[in-house]
Amino acid sequence: MSALFELAVTAILAFAPQGRAGEELWNAGQREEALEVWWREQERTPGDRARLLRIVEAELALHRYAAALEHARGLGAEGAAARGTALYRLGRPAEALGELGRKSAAELAMRVEANELLQRFEEAERELAELARRTEGKSASVEAMLGRSAVRRGDAAAGERHFRRSLELDPVEPGALFGLGMLLRSGERKAEGLALLQKHRAVTPLLDQLEFAQRGVDLGPMHAANHAAVGDAQRALGRIDAALEAYRTADRLATGDALVPVALRHARLLAEDRKDVESAVRVLESAFERCGNAKLLVRAGDLLADAGDRAAARERWTRALALRPQDAEIQARLEGAGDKR
């Protein structure tokens, strides 16, 4: 930390109730600074188990699994879920099962997958039955687990039913794409099975891209570019609602010229995927009012021209040219020549 931040932390701690400064920093997206505050408080009162558990939870959120495991060792039953999660994420399923409880669906899901990794299929079945009861057919990943379980038991019809239900909930659920593809590839519906396996191969790197982008948000939730990257990944997967929400968040957080690429991508989704040029133009003009970048007006004009509203398009291009009077591309648009895209 900088010396200035050190002084700021000291001042905050002098007047804030215990723990409040760290939470405020955490909620403001200053994750590293929040951890530093909590550790300083912990040094003063090392017996505070509630704060130590909060530190461990923060480390899990930041994907620092080894650190979370180490710091949760002295927390007894209170830290069992955290230790289990860390062990699972670190690829130690047998140890994870010794710590994970059954209080949450997330813990149950890890228990199912840990047992499967260890080929303890009877135990996995029991955990999965409880997980299915809790999720009530509303989880794509759980339906894929149920499909995998049914196929393992030799019940292909039930397996197909669960895989298809999973894909209804999420068309790119990887477990269901792979499971149903493998189930169908050697039968009369071979073509469908091979198509599903091909789709699985195509979406796997996109899901990796999404996971990487989501980690960026976990580490820097107030950075517009991180949310925009999530939007890009979700859009590539065809999850338009999720992409739109990510772009909206990025729009809200972006400042200055950093807003330009975010607004352009947001508008492109609205225009191309939602076929909503009016909303796309509103996004671009709202962004222009905030940062004054002429590119936004140019793109708004292009969208309006493509929609057949030449008068409205010319108005945007004229405003853009007033800001960039030497721009040949804008001049060409106004003259009716050049690339309208």
Question: What would you note in describing this structure?
Answer:
- This protein has 341 residues and is an all-alpha fold.
- It is built from 20 helices and no strands.
- The chain is flat.
What is the CA-based Rg, rounded?
26 Å
The N- to C-terminal Cα distance equals 47 Å
Helix percent reads: over 70%
Quaternary class: single chain
Specify the structural class: mainly alpha
Instruction: Name the overall outline.
Output: flat
Q: Average pLDDT across residues?
A: 91
Number of helices: 20
Number of strands: 0
SSE pattern: HHHHHHHHHHHHHHHHHHHH
Q: Summed up, what is this model?
A:
With 341 residues, the chain is mainly alpha-helical.
Any key phrases for this structure?
341 residues; mainly alpha; 0% strand
What's the layout of helices and strands?
Layout: H1 3-15, H2 20-27, H3 31-44, H4 49-61, H5 65-72, H6 80-89, H7 93-97, H8 105-117, H9 121-135, H10 140-152, H11 156-169, H12 174-184, H13 190-219, H14 224-236, H15 240-253, H16 259-272, H17 277-291, H18 294-306, H19 310-323, H20 328-334
Helix pairs in contact: 2-3, 3-4, 4-5, 5-6, 8-9, 9-10, 10-11, 10-12, 11-12, 12-13, 13-14, 14-15, 14-16, 15-16, 16-17, 16-18, 17-18, 18-19, 19-20
